[in-house]
Amino acid sequence: MSFLRRRKGTDSSKSQNLRCNIVKEDEKNNLYESPRKESYNAKKWSCWDSCCWFIGFVCSVWWFLLFLYNTMPASIPQYVTEAITGPLTDPPGVKLRKEGLTVNHPVVFVPGIVTGGLELWEGHQCAEGLFRKRLWGGSFGELYKRPLCWAQHMSLDNETGLDPPGIRVRPVSGLVAADYFAAGYFVWAVLIANLAQIGYEEKTMYMAAYDWRLSFQNTEVRDQTLSRIKSNIELMVATNGGKKVVVIPHSMGVLYFLHFMKWVEAPPPMGGGGGSEWCAKHIKAVMNIGGPFLGVPKSVSGLFSVEARDIAIARTFAPGFLDKDVFGLQTFQHLMRMTRTWDSTMSMIPKGGETIWGGLDWSPEGLSFNCGAKTLRNNSINNTDQIPNINLANMKNVNYGRIISFGKDVAEAHSSKIERVDLLHGVYMIIVDQQDSMKADMLANLTNCDIWIEYHDIGDHRIKAVADYKVYTAGSILDLLHFVSPKLMARGGAHFSYGIADNLDDPKYQHYKYWSNPLEMKLPDAPDMEIYSMYGVGIPTERAYVYKVTTATDCSIPFQIDTSAEGGSEDSCLKGGVFSADGDETVPVLSAGLMAAKGWRGKTRFNPSGIPTYIREYSHAPPANLLEGRGTQSGAHVDIMGNFALIEDVIRVAAGATGKELGGDHVYSDIFKWAERINLQL
Amino acid sequence: MASNFLRLRKPYYVESTINCSSSSDQKLVNLSFGINETRDQTKKRQAKEHHGRRSCLDSCCWVTGYLCTTWWLLLFLYHCCLPFTVGHEMPELMPAARLKREGLKGIHPVVLVPGIVTGGLELWEGKPCADGLFRKRLWGGGGFTQLLKRPLCWLEHLSLHNETGLDPPGIRVRPVPGLFGADYSAPGYFVWDVLVKNLAKIGYEGKNLHMAAYDWRLSFQNTEVRDRALSKLKSKIELMYRANGNKKVVVVPHSMGVAYFLHFLKWVETPPPMGGGGGQGWCAEHIKAIVNIGPSFLGVPKAVSNILSAEGKDVAYFRAMAPGVLDSGTLGLRALEHVMRVSRTWDSVVSLMPKGGETIWGNMDWSPEDEHVCDFSKKRYFRLSPSDNNVNNSDAKQVFRVKDPVKYGRIISFGKAASVLHSSQLPTAVLKEILHMNASRNFNSSCGEAWTEYDEMNRESIRKIGAVDKAYTATTLFDLLRFVAPKMMNRAEAHFSHGIADNLEDPKYNHYKYWSNPLEMKLPDAPNMEIYCSYGVGIPTERSYVYKLSPSNKCKHIPYQIDTSVDGEDGSCLKSGVYFADGDESVPVLSAGFMCAKGWKGRTRFNPSGINTYVREYQSKPPTSGIKSTTHVDIMGNIALIEDILRVAAGATGEEIGGDKIYSDMLRMSERINLRL
């Protein structure tokens, strides 16, 4: 009110002229300087007023647009999309409902690593007011507000791999746990919506949410998650007229569910005591989506140096952000400290050693994968057949077997030409120079570094020894990790194993640490069950790395991917220090498909009851334009959950179809060729 | 950012030059600007045309900006200061913090059973008008914004099928499962929040704390038929029992959840297909205690007014949740009619009708609360501790005897006279007559599409019911309701019963419709189980109503309404057509406490194994909000109650937390009730 009065006064007063003069002057001089000059004239439309005006203007426009947006009929965006991209195909749920498909088998979702939400139940002072708020998933608001507090609460105890004292972070339960990872970033939501179209609802869908930071057996020890899944599956089978469940694990959930299948049939106290027929009685099919059965090379670089092209598990989701100074200058170190307390990351270290992943001069994919394929496939999605023919000529052998090499030359040279200093020799040197390494410890103390990365416990000699060994295969990677982070691996070694069993009847394989390694477990006795491996192909996926030793600054990680290492030609598999192979951007085809293509095909020692397996590959086609969002034909590790073809397969199986009825195997990659080359005793 | 800002600033300067020509002495301005080029002149001329619009729009913008800035500033300050203010209140808000220091640790798993309207509902399949609401809340959380955006659509989706009491075709609305995260709770809505927070403090988390969500619109047995809710609860309790080292669970039902859990107790031990097949002894094996909060064991009179006319002083459950919304014109002018139409499809409302008839609720001339003192303005409880209750009550009695006792037994009376006159002075029942007449009712009413069942009734008979000075007790009430809402009562009476059993051994009592009525069921054989009745007292609670015919007799109008013009003198129990008695604002003491105080006390025919019962009353203290409040919903944040629950969950027995704690006339009232035990 007072404002209005003031305005009137100014308007009618003679100062009007004065102002006009000023404005005119301004116009002559410089338009941008005028606000300051005008503010000299205090009685006038001052700076403060113009600020208010500006804010008001922006707000009003914003509200007006918002209002328009809200009153707009919901169908308009669809019209626009259709006008640009042509008519949309029906979502698979709608299409299949028209075919008459209805609810049949209950469905269980098993989310993967990082996609499940975590909420706070008890925290330290700094997390005041966050009770039952999501720390992981949702908006990640707390990460921005109090990064150090956040990292502290997301970490687990360094020794036990369980809760640190005074902190309880627990998985969110229910479908909301992993339907969206962050606002608008779907994980399971599309699949859930499509299943709902044919009649699924809460009583026939179940999200087996678990704390993905823990080792699998620890989820049972701490939260009784495995018992809960067992009881829920039993309940769903009982209340749906004895219809068996269809299980749909994604990413690490695949390993978790392998573990579950062994656990549930093992006798208590280690297992769930369901008896040897539990799986046969309760499970119709396991539809693994993007399963890292044999591990992913990414996890190695993640553990080794918290990097890789896009990994650092946490970084994937706040890209660009974590690289900045949230944590001050030590982003990586804090992340590394946090992720290293998570046992689950160790479940994805490549399994099967050189037999599966290749030796120094040999790898299953080496001869036949064509790294230029990606660009080609984008242009001609439909004629994938042609690709191998075109590029066979300019292909050369890539040494994928060398998962970590120090220096590009080493990565490409023949093994006979590489001089390696044995790691054991390195260890010996350290024992000799123990005093030196103690000095190094003291030095670390002196330089004010927190000693939370084990790298600070090890001396320069050890770092040198690591680099001198030059090349690491999937087998020697384990030695490397044991060498650089003994504590971590000691903790992980109690929960996971990475070898190949010689004799599966050995009683030692009844221990839970073997349950999530498909090469050291037998599938349950359930000949009517079906196992699907569903994954995307056609995206270059990290497979091997070229490393370098960083010039040692005080508190940094001593190894880094050598991003300067390039392959030369356009089609080269080596880019930015990373060798890529075919896969879904995270999991190489080899890891996702080998078990279904060979290890479990027919009656093998890993699959004594002959459970039928099916490979369903989905060729990646990036979204045509922005309006399509993350695409309906994507093959990327997470985006594949919105792939219409995959959803259709899942719905058909849930409605009762068998693998044969779906069309059996559906393969684009060379997985069968590679499988032949792998010499695995079956 | 900065460049953006500047770009936006530019237009403003153009406009401010424009301002120059706005002065009255245009000539002078022109003179002073005389040397200007013609470009400027044209600009000015343009400016002149824009003159009027400019100042108005600008000041609007200015005001908005000013308000926004101030608002943000205050908000910012508020957020800065908040931690300090909250920090001081924290210890008081959290009894758990104190108990934790005492060394209390959660031992028994806890199951929470929500009451009516407190559970969230979400959409799984809907009509085209509900496009884009898949798995969005319709009820609870953000659901009420949908009420504002598309009210009719919203109501349509919340209705159930008129005949089956299940989903209407093409619509699936389902309860939100689990301990719905704090992310989803709307402020002031999530009634369990404080309790959950406190439980978490002493070590509870997802594995030993469970929220038994169910669709509260359905009849209890139908939650099993449609959603398998009872099976789910059974499996969950068994799992928690096993996974926590064979520790029995503590169940905390609230409001209607109490009746739901009674139903569960019977269901779980009954053999399939009707029951859960847990077998005899399931409850004894799995349940340590049931801490009933604000239990509506014997029903609430509110439910009657809700069915009859969708009103009541603060009733209509809707209105409690979205106050003001329904009273305003969101739904056109017929908010109440819409509410009635929807809520009559909910079977669960019928479960809340008064049970036990005249034996419990009183007849025309007698009621158990006869000695009740209504002067709530001097809440006598303040100065009383339970021990000297007796002495003071006798005083109260003397004061009271001067007046006539209130005839609470007449739950519905038409006209004030009918509510006070002695029964011999009232005309004899005419309902039978009307019923007879109604048998030949003609359906050619001019109302067109029938909205509520009132539209299908003969207007004549409606008027007859209302015109006579007639009162209805808890028994005859059902005749009235069967008459005005035949379909609903037909449907619902297949699921609920409201009588008193003569012989509990009668095999008919094995039917599920008797399971939620404590007067027609036997408690399970579980002598070590404990049952608590915890409720607030000292707040006037609706107990009976004075009705009148509504003035308009048009179609699609509810023909009856509470006669709000009827008031008693000062200190009377009658206010705006409603008689009040002691209670927690929704549930009268009688309904909440009677079973624990008498019906189940010791070894009775309703409680053959002699399960221990405890009455825990919590008296209201001013200010009646926040941590000491005892109203029906707010009591969930009452620190005394929370402390009791925590202690029980940590292993204490009823004796250890102090046994009975009674402030009201509960014991005297129950003495007066002549129920065969």
Structure report:
Chain B: InterPro entries: AB_hydrolase_fold, LACT/PDAT_acylTrfase. Chain B: Pfam families: LCAT. The complex is a heterodimer of chains A (682) and B (677). Chain A is α/β, with parallel strands linked by helices. Chain A has three domains: 2-71, no CATH class; 92-294 and 519-537 and 590-677, Rossmann fold (3-Layer(aba) Sandwich), CATH 3.40.50; 297-349 and 353-497 and 539-583, no CATH class. In chain A, 39% of the residues lie in helices and 12% in strands. Chain A is built from 28 helices and 17 strands. In chain A, the strands form four sheets. A six-stranded parallel β-sheet of chain A has the order 7-1-8-9-12-17, with helices on both faces. In chain A, strands 10, 11, 13, 14, 15 and 16 form a six-stranded mixed β-sheet that branches. A three-stranded antiparallel β-sheet of chain A has the order 3-2-4. In chain A, helix 6 packs parallel to helix 9 (189-197) and helix 25 crosses helix 28 (671-677). The radius of gyration of chain A is 29 Å and the shape is globular. The termini of chain A are far apart. In chain A, 50% of the residues are buried. Mean pLDDT of chain A is 76; it is low at 1-42, 308-329, 373-395 and 428-453. In chain B, a hairpin with a 2-residue loop joins strand 13 and strand 14. The termini of chain B are far apart. Chain B has a six-stranded parallel β-sheet with strand order 5-1-6-7-10-15, sandwiched between helices. Chain B folds into three domains: 2-80, no CATH class; 120-175, no CATH class; 301-672, no CATH class. Chain B is of the alpha/beta class. The chains are: A alpha/beta (682), B alpha/beta (677). Chains A and B meet through helix 1, helix 2, helix 3, helix 4 and strand 2 of A and helix 1, helix 2, helix 3, strand 4 and helix 7 of B.
